[in-house]
Amino acid sequence: AASFRVAADTFAEAIAPARTFGFLREVETLRRSGLALGGSLDNAVVIGETGVLNNRLRFEDEFVRHKILDAIGDLALLGHPVVGHLEATRAGHALHAALCRRLSESPDAWTIAVHRELPVMELPPVLRPAPGLALGS
Question: Which of 20, 14, 27 is nearest to 63 (CA)?
Answer without folding.
Answer: 20
